[in-house]
Every structure is written in C-alpha cells, then in structure tokens.
Amino acid sequence: MSPVLSVSLARHGGVLAHRALALKVSCQRGCKLLASATLYAPGPRTRPVRLAAVARTLAAALPGHLRLRVGLRALRRLRAALGHRAGMTARITLLAAGPTGRRTIVVRTFAVAR
Question: CATH number, domain at 72?
Fold first, then answer.
C-alpha cells in the first residue's frame, strides 16, 4: 500500500528571517520522506529559487517537522527580487516510501510571506 501523507506549513511568515521554510508532515504508516521546495517571487522577470532538500524517517501517524533551508545566495536573490513586497509562492514536493517499498509523490503550493 502506498503511503498517505498530510502536509501543512508550520508558519506562513518569516521564511527569509528564519532562513527556512518550516513544514509539518505526517504519514499514516511509517515512511521515509524526501522533501524539496522552490520559492517563487512575484513578477515576470524573477527566477525561482530552490531550497535544499531534506530526508527524514517518520513514525506512523506522528507529525514530524521539516525545515527546508534557504541558502545565503538564494536569500540575497529573493530579497532583491521582492523589493518592498512581502508575498511569495512555495511549491513543495514530497516523495514518500512506505514500509512495503511503494512510493507516493505529493506536490503542494502554499502562499508564504517574507
């Protein structure tokens, strides 16, 4: 059986101040998880910024916390692209492998603030 994931943001704001995107993830059964994310600043000429991927093992039905770190170079690019604006879009991709080896890919998009 494929893993069933539940994903939410631990906080919507402070992504640049904390230099990380905080997630709360849970799996119905125990699973191994690989999370990656991309931040998009508004505007036609801004390039998306990738965050460092994180791997973690989750116990069954217990929420786990993940922090996807924003690198220093990415932080500078986002600050320059945002200017005085605050809003960004985060696209999060989760790959979960269950105890039987079956995999699930979950992609979620969230609105986050600087």
Answer: 2.60.40.10
Phi, psi of 52 (to 5 degrees): -65, 135
Encoding tokens for residue 60?
A: 């069954």
Contacts of 106 by beta carbon, 8 Å cutoff, 6+ apart: 5, 7, 93, 94, 96
Residue 92, H or E segment: strand 87-97
Per-residue model confidence as pLDDT tens digits over 49-100: 999 999 999 999 899 999 999 999 999 999 999 988 899 999 999 999 999 9
pTM of the model: 0.91
pLDDT over threshold 90, residue 113: yes
Distance of alpha carbon 33 from alpha carbon 36, whole angstroms: 10
Q: How far apart are CA 87 and CA 43, in angstroms?
A: 11
- Indicate the number of domains in the chain: 1
Q: Which domain holds residue 14?
A: 5-113
Token pair recorded at residue 48:
């998306």
